Amino acid sequence: MTAGPVLEAREFSLRLHTREQSITIVDEVSWSVAPGETLAVVGESGSGKTVSTLGIFGLLPANVAADTGGQVLLRGRDVLNLVDAERAAILGSDVGVIFQDPLTAFNPMRRIGPQIAHSVRTHLGLDKANARQRAIELLAQVGIADPRARYSAYPHEMSGGMRQRALVALAIAGEPTVLIADEPTTALDVTTQAQLLELLREIQAERGLALVLITHDMGVVASMADKIAVMYAGRMVEYGDAISVLTDPDHPYTSGLLASIADPRAGAKEPFRVLPGLPPDLAGVGEGCRFADRCELAEASCADLFPVLAPLRTRPGGWQTSACWKHPRHEPLTEEETAVQS
User: Fold this and answer.
1) pLDDT of residue 341
2) DSSP string, 255-277
């Protein structure tokens, strides 16, 4: 029997306010992730994949105010109903975060080990000596050689791969149930990327963590994900089990992302495939499909109303939803079939 979700977004929306304007940057996004499961949130830069996850916990750009809508349930408790201090306390305890740049995640003026030990003391209540020992054990668990010596290293004294491993140690120091990894392999070479992903798999398996992986790298998605949420211009356009989405995508945007992956078997003269155009400015989006002006299948009517996520007929044992008026690859389920499936 599959465990229920530990973290679940239900029509989560996020509206940012600056002195100049107010913009809805996450618009009614719904997804869930269970213990031991990996959800990949994918999309181009600016698609809303990072803010739709980290924004739940108040990790937002500086000098902005925000309003939220919908629900985000962490083990049944609505995170959005908590005050800022309560929501901040969740980070590091129930939810660990691996940020994209460990140099900004760590305080560059403090040694690595004491920063991890501080998190241990804060979230687990250990005394100073035991917290130090626990931090050294965590450094060893994430594969850092000579962890006692590295405990006293500053962030700049470590390589990029080693800093990222140390950041994983910091993220799991409070023994969270959910781990959010924001572009964790960016700026790492291919070998180090593979090692880091294997480390995440091992930690997830050992601890039964729910993993939310934010990435634009479809190769990483293919190797890690159990299910995939595809974001475009602040909305989710496709959502389903990883095999269904990767092997038979329905939404033209998902198809475009997959088609843009470089094929190592292609010849040197094979043209590099990219999605035409650019994502829209969220301050000026209308009521229609936000991908319409980049979509080869779009008709004039696509600009009138945004399509909702519709359950699709997909492979046996799979499940998939897509927000497209055309549904070029699949037929939507009828209302009766949807009711039976749910």
Assistant:
1) 63
2) HHHHHTS--TTS-TTSPPP--SS
